[in-house]
Amino acid sequence: MKIISEKCEGCLSCVDVCPVRAISQKNGKIVINKNECIGCGCCASSCPNDAIEYE
Ligand code: SF4
Ligand code: SF4
Q1: CA-based angle 40:44:48, to the nearest 5?
Q2: Residue from 2, 52, 53 whose mutation best tests the ligand 2 pocket (most atoms within 8 A of CB)
Q3: Where exactly are the structural domains of the chain?
Q4: pLDDT digit string (tens) for 7-51?
Q5: Ligand 2 centre and the CA of 54: distance in Å?
Q6: How much is the pLDDT for 4?
Q7: Which ligand is nearest to the CA of 54?
Q8: 15 pocket-lining for ligand 1 (C-beta < 6 Å)
Q9: How confident is the model at residue 54, as a pLDDT?
Q10: Is the distance from CB of 30 to CB of 10 less than 8 angstroms?
Q11: pLDDT at position 17, please?
Q12: DSSP 3-state assignment of 44?
């Protein structure tokens, strides 16, 4: 998964929804820990701005 940072408004809904807590906010930016991500897609579904895409 990757964050399209220009589209992200920092609502943190993806951070809350991730079942394995692979998403966090660092220095105002949303980051996905790719080693922890299981590719469930919940973050992308939860994003109101379509700022998360599969890669
Ligand atoms: S795809 Fe699933 S596991 Fe990966 S960051 Fe998004 S919510 Fe978390
Ligand atoms: S859900 Fe979308 S807009 Fe909200 S913090 Fe995550 S990437 Fe940004």
Answers
A1: 150
A2: 52
A3: 2-53
A4: 999 999 999 999 999 999 999 999 999 999 999 999 999 999 999
A5: 14
A6: 97
A7: 1
A8: no
A9: 94
A10: yes
A11: 98
A12: helix
Strand 29-32 versus strand 23-26 pairing type: antiparallel
Q: What is the C-alpha separation between 36 and 11, in angstroms, rounded?
A: 21
Biggest alpha carbon distance in the chain? 25
CATH class for the region spanning 2-53: alpha beta
pTM of structure: 0.94
Rounded-to-5 percentages of helix, strand, coil across the chain:
20, 20, 60
Question: What pLDDT sits at residue 2?
Answer: 95
* pLDDT at position 18: 98
